[in-house]
Design a protein that fits this description.
Blueprint: E1 2-7, H1 14-33, E2 38-43, H2 74-83, E3 86-95, E4 97-98, H3 100-110, H4 115-128, E5 142-149, H5 160-169, E6 174-181, H6 184-187, H7 194-210, E7 236-237, E8 242-245, E9 250-257, E10 260-264, H8 267-270, H9 277-300, H10 302-314
Parallel strand pairs: 1-2, 1-3, 3-5, 5-6
Antiparallel strand pairs: 3-4, 7-8, 8-9, 9-10
Length: 320
Amino acid sequence: MKVLGISMGRKNERSDIYCKQALMGVEAAAKASGKDIEVEFINTVTMNIGQCRGCGACSKAPDGIIKCIIPDDYLTLEEKVLDADGIIIAAPVYSVGIVGQLKNFLDRFGAAHDRASMLEEQKAREKEGRPLLDARYFKDRYCSYVAVGGAWTEDWTSFGLPMMHLFSCSQAMKVVGQINANDQGRKTSPFLDPPMMEDVFKMGENLANNLGVPYDETTWFGKEGTCPVCHLDFLMVNGTNKVTCPVCGIHGLVEIDGEKMKVTFPEEQIKRARNTIPGLYEHHNEIAEMMRICIPLLQEKKEFLDEKKKEYMAYKPKWS
């Protein structure tokens, strides 16, 4: 088995240190349990990972080959992720949310590797006798995250961990641990915060111990949180007693007792979280329905839409 540690921060600084500390925890757990686990560390800060251009080429290539056509370092990192059984990501939070390089990667990785779509493509290939997709696309993987921020107030790093979950959802990876390592500005160095370093080490141990375990039997490391799936305290409210976890897309009910709030998520909601196979199939079917509606409409309105596009293509602001 392989565990990949990815740091998206400055070399030899906080993200690197936390990522390597977690990998040391993986190695310690492997030694204690006798598991054969190979670890690898990569710092991506000097890698060229450009943004997704929305060209759709990854889904239109000959024989359904799922590959981004932009020839940059995304392809290198993609291969390392596909080879891994466990993944630890440590990334800086500069402006409330994750660093842009990680967002670039997951924009290009996510939709192109949607597990429900790949399962349907694989079924079609088996039926038609075409070459099958890479078996790595269907492998269960386990993830842990460290969001690294300077502010001591957690609300200045509040989008870090939620956005990191976007990495794992399309492939239905199981997140088994997370830490919001904020307050780095006052703590100065991870080496001056032994409790945090110990927690990161234990998070790595937990990841190693979960490798190969059925998803519904895994153990969690980190704050329990309000949502039972992503373990984050992140909710969408609509003025009623119903709330939604924006990370998992599941709906719950709120009860208020004085200043305390309790949120209950029914089991049927937990089972359809967007990082599960049923949740991914919901989205897959949604897209299929969208295509059923929009393609005939585009054909019917083609002349009108072509003319309107010409107007906007010809538009030039007077200051340009």
